[in-house]
Write a structure and sequence with these properties.
Chain lengths: ~270, ~450, ~270
């Protein structure tokens, strides 16, 4: 059983990572092909660091992803707390269903509905669409990230129940203090994983940015898509490789460290 | 772990913010901030020399040129915000939905015509674009079929469509005919590629059959569709940029594509060869324009003028690999040396045949014109019917229906069991209660 | 008195949801109303059923999209459930590693991932070169399903994993003590308890795979079209109203089927076999 599950894990992760390894492989190609390997070279890494266009796009992508992760986490956590506190079951269900719409809706529908909305809004406000290009994109990203945050925070709040914060209130905390000092630390894992989810969704989003995006603010997925007129060059592969390797190394380090911690505790007799 | 990841995200963000804190105002923002004006340039992806391996970084060079020579004349300096698109339609979609404000765009011929008709393009200021004199006469006056007298556009690149084939996989007797027919040859079933956009796919069938590619008669399009349906069973697929990888890895043997791109492919796979079909072929021009709602028309005109100067035009022609309408480029030694590195026959392939010579046998104008909405809708519908032709396979139906039926059956069964069990428990509870009372 | 205070308190605390409610009405409900408007008007802006009526033409494309995504979701479930289960049973520090390994591919670009898959599976790709075969994979429906499974598998595994890892370890022992065989423990205890995870996993895979418009173009070799491609082309060629109508119908169908599905994930959990 143990061996069978090891083999299974190995197989699935193998299939999952073969395309990633292929991508890394071609980032070291000496020609600009992403299908024929002609020789080993670092030229695409050099090119990557000399390409202002790529870095502007990378910076835009990160700005957008960080901001939308932050905003959606704040609004989403507050919303989860509020929804939990609601007395009317009907209202709860109604809000939950509306919240889930961007998640249940295909990206392409969310994207175009947002676009039509902002075009109309620009008309009403009497400004041009492109004046709110970045704002429009940020709003759309927050909107489709929100359900993921709420979905990961709400169960934690439900699990935690009322007793802790009631105890805090009895001990003289104001409701705000009770929330920030007692409840928030306890639901933190849910909040953080919601934030990571939101960041990931925003980072990889192409469809919604494609529809809503104002041309003057180009993100990485949009840049890569625009290359399909001619061909996607291996410097994009180099960039992906760097991202994967940085995260992977971080993973290994933190895994190694937490492994050590367990070891220490074990030695101290803290953990069986 | 998640905490660390969040920390990493912020480190990453701070890093990028600090890396670029020096070059502010390149992400749109207000068009005028202080004395710096943002010039929004919207071009095809990979369609400009961007400083790759020591080549000219066009946009940086323009900023430097403008800010040293022209800033005092206009009273502001320039920051170029350069963004890219993949198709004419994407670009038009962004402009028409007013999602973007641009100062310079580079659409293709038929799109320029459409945009002129819809009043979306501004007239150019030839008192600024003095380098226009270097454009070959073959692109001026009536020769600019999409924009007579070049009122709204200055040619940037041009080229023709041809057939690329793999000499190791295609027999000599077949490719020596130099016909579109190679794309319809059943011998190469599963090895032929076709364009994944209606305009070029229908185009190939229509040049082949000597039909008008700009026909306003739906019946003509219907008969072109029949030709494409016939071709579909021989095809490996409808593709766009995948052609590069599929041809260089010999996954496919025959594909239509642009002469300039063939040079890039041939550099990676020496078996590849190219011809312009004898029946006639598409001739396109991509030209620089200024949208009517541009806020910096002077600077935009200066940008276009700058693109026509020798050093810049040569760098761009070398980077893109398409034919250049600029006479300065053709006489430049650096250009001919650079192209010769790519392919020995580069001159014959790019400039060997003029569009008129290539289209001697073709009875109509070889360039695309913009569609009327009716024809556009008709072509869209035909394209969809081509895609649905033989698109379903029995196993897909059978498997998916089996899954759906199984899931529904399971759900019904679950509800049934749940009801039965809850009734059982209710009965048991009642019995117990009765027993208690009985006691 | 105390009750009154509590009530006031609760209203106060519910205010935390106010920004979200405001946001949801402005940026979720209003845009959908605009889609509704476009779907029921013609290009001149007058009311018309034309768009909805003409949707019959798209039935084959729509059917194919649904069929392929149903199969992809099923495959995801079959592959993903054991994976989630194995991860949930691993040591805690290993669990975190596996989850992160699962999410890592999502941090690379979807388009580039798809190109890499093509480089492997193409007629002249790695796989065929390695095996010396001439299998034709890219351009078939199987390749599209593979692409969907590859890209959306994490969305299936993560919710199931969260659910399974919460199940009390002693549940298994208790069930076997009461005379269940291992298979019965699985089908009668573990599976029903992880039902909510399965439902959200299925939702998160089914929805994006129905509307995907890049994977099908590239891995499907363009020989057939899915509904996402159609909507995209409608919009880009200026047929906003038709595009909106197709989107509307797709949205309504998806939401109806998901609502039905959600009825089975209520708190009691489902009962399977």
């Amino acid at each position: 059983m143990k061996i069978a599950s090891k083999i299974y894990l190995f197989l699935i992760f193998g299939i999952l990572y073969i395309p990633i390894l292929t991508l890394i492989f071609f980032s070291f190609n000496s020609s600009n092909s992403t299908a024929v390997f002609t020789g080993f070279s670092f030229r695409w890494y050099v090119e990557l660091f000399n390409s202002p266009e790529t870095f502007v796009a990378l910076r835009n992508t990160l700005i957008l992803a960080v901001l939308s992760a932050l905003i959606s986490t704040v609004i989403g956590t507050a919303a989860a707390e509020g929804i939990y506190r609601m007395r009317s079951k009907l209202l709860q269900t109604a809000i939950n269903s509306v919240t889930n719409i961007p998640m249940m809706n295909p990206d392409i529908v969310t994207g175009m509905s947002m676009m039509l909305f902002f075009v109309a809004l620009a008309g009403i406000l009497g400004i041009t669409y492109e004046d709110m290009g970045f704002t429009a994109m940020l709003i759309s990203h927050v909107t489709f990230c929100l359900p993921y945050v709420i979905l990961s925070v709400l169960p934690r709040i439900n699990e935690l129940g009322d007793s802790l914060s009631e105890a805090a209130l009895d001990l003289g905390c104001t409701p705000l203090q009770a929330f920030f000092k007692v409840k928030l630390p306890n639901i933190m894992p849910g909040v953080l994983s919601g934030m990571v989810m939101a960041f990931t969704m925003s980072l990889d989003d192409f469809v919604i940015s494609y529809f809503v995006g104002s041309s003057n603010f180009q993100t990485l997925p949009l840049l890569i898509y625009s290359m399909t007129k001619k061909k996607v060059t291996p410097d994009m592969y180099a960039l992906s490789t760097l991202i994967v390797i940085v995260i992977f190394v971080m993973l290994l380090i933190s895994n190694f460290k937490s492994g050590k911690k367990v070891e220490k505790k074990r030695k101290a007799g803290g953990v069986k | 772990m998640t905490k660390k990841l969040v920390l990493a995200i912020f480190l990453l963000a701070v890093l990028t913010f600090s890396l670029f804190s020096c070059d502010d105002n390149s992400d749109g923002g207000p068009a005028v901030s202080g004395n710096v004006v943002t010039l929004n340039v919207y071009n095809w992806g990979e369609y400009i020399s961007d400083g790759f391996e020591g080549s000219l970084d066009t946009n940086a060079a323009f900023e430097e040129y403008f800010n040293t020579h022209l800033a005092s004349k206009y009273g502001y300096s320039i920051k170029v915000n350069y963004t890219t698109y993949a198709t004419n339609e994407d670009m038009y979609f962004k402009l028409a939905s007013e999602a973007g404000n641009y100062d310079v765009i580079i659409p293709s011929d038929y799109m320029i015509e459409k945009m002129i008709n819809e009043g979306m393009l501004a007239e150019l200021d030839y008192s600024i674009i003095t380098n226009f004199e270097y454009i070959d006469d073959g692109f001026k006056g009536d020769a600019a079929y999409y924009d007579p007298d070049n009122k709204h556009s200055v040619p940037y690149t041009y080229g023709m469509l041809g057939v690329i084939y793999n000499t190791a996989l295609v027999d000599e007797e077949d490719y020596l005919e130099e016909s579109w027919g190679l794309l319809w040859n059943p011998k190469y079933r599963g090895k032929i590629l076709q364009f994944n956009n209606p305009r070029d796919a229908f185009g190939s069938a229509m040049y082949y059959m000597n039909m008008d590619i700009n026909s306003t008669d739906p019946a003509v399009w219907d008969s072109a569709l029949a030709k494409l349906v016939q071709q579909k069973e021989y095809l490996q697929g409808y593709v766009n940029d995948e052609i590069f990888n599929k041809m260089t890895t010999a996954s496919a043997a025959i594909a239509p594509y642009f002469a300039g791109d063939f040079l890039t492919m041939a550099y990676q796979n020496e078996d590849l060869a190219f011809y312009y079909p004898i029946e006639g072929t598409n001739y396109f021009v991509d030209a620089m324009c200024i949208p009517k709602n541009s806020r910096n028309k002077d600077a935009a005109n200066e940008y276009i003028n700058f693109m026509l100067s020798e050093e810049v035009a040569v760098a761009n022609a070398l980077y893109i690999g398409y034919a250049s309408p600029n006479t300065l480029v053709l006489d430049n030694e650096e250009y001919s040396e650079g192209m010769a590195e790519l392919h020995d026959d580069w001159w014959d392939i790019l400039y060997g045949k003029t569009p008129a010579e290539a289209n001697e046998e073709y009875d109509y104008s070889p360039g695309y014109k913009s569609f009327s909405p009716e024809i556009q809708a008709h072509v869209n519908a035909l394209w969809e019917s081509l895609k649905t032709e033989n698109a379903t396979e029995p196993w897909v139906h059978i498997t998916s229906i089996t899954i759906i039926v199984a899931v529904i059956a399971l759900a019904v069964y679950t509800v049934y069991i749940r009801k039965k069990r809850s009734r059982h428990y209710r009965l048991r509870d009642r019995e117990n209660a009765l027993k208690k009372i009985g006691k | 008195m105390e009750i009154k205070m509590k009530k006031k308190n609760s209203i106060m605390r519910s205010i935390a949801a106010a920004p979200h409610i405001f946001w949801a009405i402005l940026f979720i409900v209003l845009p959908l109303i605009i889609v509704l408007y476009y779907a029921f008007t013609d290009s001149e802006g007058s009311f018309s059923f034309e768009n909805i009526v003409s949707l019959g033409d798209y039935a084959p494309i729509f059917t194919l999209s649904v069929e392929l995504s149903v199969i992809a979701t099923f495959v995801c479930l079959i592959i993903g459930y054991p994976l989630a289960y194995i991860i949930a049973k691993a040591k805690p520090e290993k669990q975190r590693l596996y989850v992160m390994l699962l999410m890592l591919p999502m941090w690379t670009n979807l388009l580039i991932r798809t190109y890499s898959i093509m480089a492997i599976l193409d007629d002249g790709g790695f796989l065929n070169t390695l095996l010396g075969t001439t299998m034709h994979i890219v351009g078939t429906k199987g390749a599209v399903i593979f692409g969907m499974v590859y890209d959306f598998l994490p969305y299936m595994v993560l919710p199931i994993y969260t659910c399974v890892s919460k199940i009390d370890k002693h549940m298994w022992e208790a069930a076997s003590d009461l005379g269940c065989k291992p298979i019965q423990v699985m089908t009668r205890v573990i599976l029903p308890l992880s039902m909510s995870g399965i439902i959200s996993g299925v939702t998160m895979v089914l929805v994006p795979s129905i509307s995907t418009f890049y994977i099908s173009q590239k891995l499907g070799g363009g020989t057939f079209e899915l509904i996402g491609d159609t909507i995209e082309r409608q919009f880009v060629t200026g047929a906003l109203n038709t595009g909106a109508a197709i989107s509307l119908v797709m949205m309504v169908l998806i939401i109806i089927s998901l609502t039905i599905m959600n009825r089975f994930s209520d708190e009691e959990g489902g009962i399977i076999v």
